[in-house]
Amino acid sequence: MDAILLQILNGLDKGSAYALIALGLTLIFGTLGVVNFAHGALFMLGAFCAVTLNRLLSLGFVPEDASATSVGGFSFGAAKETPYVEHWFGESVGAAIIDWSVPLSILFAIPVMIGIGVIMERGLIKHFYKRPHADQILVTFGLAIVLQEIIKFYYGANPIPTPAPEAFRGSFDFGALVGFDPNTIIYPYWRLVYFAFAALIIGGVFAFLQFTTFGMVVRAGMADRETVGLLGINIDRRFTIMFGIAAAVAGLAGVMYTPINSPNYHMGMDFLVLSFVVVVVGGMGSLPGAVLAGFLLGILESFASMAAVLETLPGINQIVIYLVAIIILLTRPRGLMGRKGVMEE
């Protein structure tokens, strides 16, 4: 039972990333009808927002070091570099700001990712609304490659460790918390934080679409764009804003994932294909389907990674998601919660 619970926890952690990326993909497809293969790159850019803020907060200067001695014109004793935030706010406060750079990156990433999303939609995507899906895939996939090569040029090809705040490093005895013997289930703090954060973002997006006037208009536009336009509502502007929101969701997923998986330039591609499988399994255009499929496939992949399973079926963890996708699409061609008429023309 403890092994089952551990795999469920691992699946929820991975499924959270799948669900967040798939949610943004579905928002874009449902509103604009665009198959956005650059969405994984938005996840990557969010992760590098965290890297960038961490580097900015760590910038410092070398003060005059009274302990350094000079002999014959040569100085001995290296002076310690002091980060500017420690100089401005004091050593303890400045150190805390640097330590909490990943959560603080949320505030940094939201406007950056919304801006990137709006620029991407207005500058490129809008020209492909009425083009075939194959054209959309080619141009957005090309954009994703350009973005990842830009990141590779400025940040290098190696992963960049970006630690969680010290308060959330390490693991705790989750098994004892739920009644198991001590040290039965040891689980990292930050992975639970990520799951809680994903649940908060997903709940916020659904509440925004369900209970705000803006969201209601967007949902109406997803169902019947022409009729909403005839009512005098500028639905194109609202859809542009939704593209920005979808970019922000993907970016925030990347920001909070950095302590789990050190950011690198190809991490977006690693998640992109799996996220599209999640979207298709959940049903193209279905937001609840994308979230449900994300968590289900994450849990399934986690169970397939168990040692006992791999001994019996080596490599099954690498293909289990695709096998499930094939089975579901053979039995339910629209996916788990797909809508009639979506991508069926």
UniProtKB/TrEMBL annotation:
One GO CC term of this entry? plasma membrane
Q: Where in the cell is it found?
A: Cell membrane
State the InterPro entries in the record. ABC_transp_permease, BCAA_transport_permease
Recorded GO molecular functions are: transmembrane transporter activity
Where mainly located? membrane
Q: Family assignment?
A: Belongs to the binding-protein-dependent transport system permease family. LivHM subfamily.
Any Pfam family the entry gives: BPD_transp_2
Mode of membrane association? Multi-pass membrane protein
Write the record's keywords in alphabetical order, separated by commas.
Amino-acid transport, Cell membrane, Membrane, Transmembrane, Transmembrane helix, Transport
Which residues are listed as membrane-spanning? 15-35, 42-62, 106-125, 192-218, 239-259, 265-283, 315-331
The entry's protein name is Branched-chain amino acid ABC transporter permease
Output one GO BP term: amino acid transport
